[in-house]
Amino acid sequence: MSIRAVDEAPLNKFHRKLTWACAGGPFLDGYLLSIIGVALVGMSSELNLTTGDESLIGAAALVGIFVGGLFFGAVTDKLGREAMYTIDLAVLVAGSVLSVFATETWQFVVLRFVLGMAIGADYPIATSLLAEWVPNKHRGRLLGILILAWYIGAAAAYVVGYVLAEMWGTGSWRWMLASGAVLSAVILLMRIGTPESPLWLVNKGRTADAQKAIKKALDRTIPVEELLAASAAEQSVEQSRFRDLFQGTYLRRTLFCGLFYMCQITPMFALYTFGPTILGSFGLGEGNAGNLGSALISVVFVLGCIPALRLVDKVGRRPVIVWSFALMVIPLVVLGGGTALPIAVVITCFCAYALFSGGPTVLEWTYPNELFPTSIRATAGGVATSISRIGAAAGTYLLPISLDRLGIGTTMLIGAGITAVGWLVSFAWAEETRGRTLAETSALPGSERPASAGEEDRGSLRESGHSLRESGLGRS
């Protein structure tokens, strides 16, 4: 049986465990980025932090994510998914523990930067590992579940912050930071023992290890001769490198993945800020109750992702992302009416945007993993994450300035314009990858030829140039 068995395997306990373990990284991202916002209230008063100190502490993790995604994606393609999969979680545990005992601003800034690097590294590590293990027909949905974990983590942080603040007041901020260490340790334990990606092992010529990994995970024995043929095919072509992401077709795919990701999260960060203002109309935006309001915002975005999870595998990636961006523009344009709008209209627009944004959200990590070959898959995911964080950091920094100088209406129209750019990028460059093997989706245009009957029997698939050339890894 070929590695086709991996692509077409029924979902089992291993797939479910791997999905939840991989989702731990985005969950911790949402949790750690959000819990610091709650903890800063107590930190500021106890440590006499200035506004500049708070800004540095808040921004350090975003800068770390940029660096971590850009650098450690390439390291993951070189050293393997399995090793980095646990190392980055160990860094999260250590960094969170040390944060509990920090007393100086520079210590918090350094630790938040390190935590951000580990989070940024985990995105390409975990998503590439999951993409290379899950069956084709479930890949879009399972990768989409990972992004849901971000919102759940953010909501959990606000709830935990609310409970701790109610019990022990603002002085409980060290307990808030300690909670991140506990959660990181739990997820680290979940990840121990996960087998290496068979695609990565074959790409490196480690066919015997690939056979053992498949046996351990799926309890299926793959004839080593077929893996040897796949390995020989892999080694017979030039392996793609970091610079290939910025050449030819891969440049277009890199720009597509990074730009649509950035255009999706930049206005989203703006609405995360605008959300508490809306909830303030109902008395939920002040004091500790504001933490519950922020948790509710995260839940609304989770609800928006749920229908998209089904649609990406049922109707396809391209129609979902193109139509979602088009529909996302509408509520932002309406919100351009500013404070003159009735609160019911504002809430409706907010909910509509959250619903429509589910499409691009669940594809943030699907497309980078599908459009690039094994040798640069994690690298591409890391670059896309880094590009997106430029928008996140800029949105976080510029939003208060825009609200103060331009007003909420103009700020929302700017968000609509950014979203419209996301639609243009998707309309021009989004490819359809539903139901296809990773070898097929990552192949360069025109590099595949129809397989003959004899080749189908051998399970071989030919790819040229910088893409994979795999045997037994595609569908016959």
Mean pLDDT: 81
* Count of all domains: 1
Number of helical elements: 20
Structural class: mainly alpha
| CATH arch. level architecture | Up-down Bundle
Q: What does the main sheet amount to? A: none
Total beta strands: 0
CATH superfamily: MFS general substrate transporter like domains
Q: Give the helix level as a range of percent.
A: over 70%
Fraction in beta strands: under 5%
SSE ordering: HHHHHHHHHHHHHHHHHHHH
Radius of gyration: 23 Å
Broad shape: globular
Indicate the CATH topology: Growth Hormone, Chain: A
Query: What is the level 1 CATH name?
Result: Mainly Alpha
- Which regions contain 5 or more consecutive residues with pLDDT less than 50? 448-476
**What is the CA–CA distance across the termini?**
12 Å
Summarize the entry for a quick read.
This protein has 476 residues and is an all-alpha fold.
Walk me through what this model shows.
Belongs to the major facilitator superfamily. Sugar transporter (TC 2.A.1.1) family. The chain has one domain (about 5-195, about 240-440): Growth Hormone, Chain: A (Up-down Bundle). It has 20 helices and no strands. It has about 475 residues and is an all-alpha fold. The protein is globular.
Keywords:
single chain; 476 residues; mainly alpha; Growth Hormone, Chain: A; 20 helices; 76% helix; globular; disordered C terminus
List the helices and strands and how they pair.
Blueprint: H1 4-7, H2 13-47, H3 51-79, H4 81-101, H5 105-131, H6 139-168, H7 173-191, H8 198-203, H9 207-218, H10 224-235, H11 248-280, H12 289-314, H13 317-335, H14 343-356, H15 358-363, H16 366-370, H17 377-405, H18 407-429, H19 438-442, H20 453-458
InterPro entries: MFS_dom, MFS_sugar_transport-like, MFS_Sugar_Transporters, MFS_trans_sf, Sugar_transporter_CS
GO molecular function: carbohydrate:proton symporter activity
Domain Major facilitator superfamily (MFS) profile: 18-434
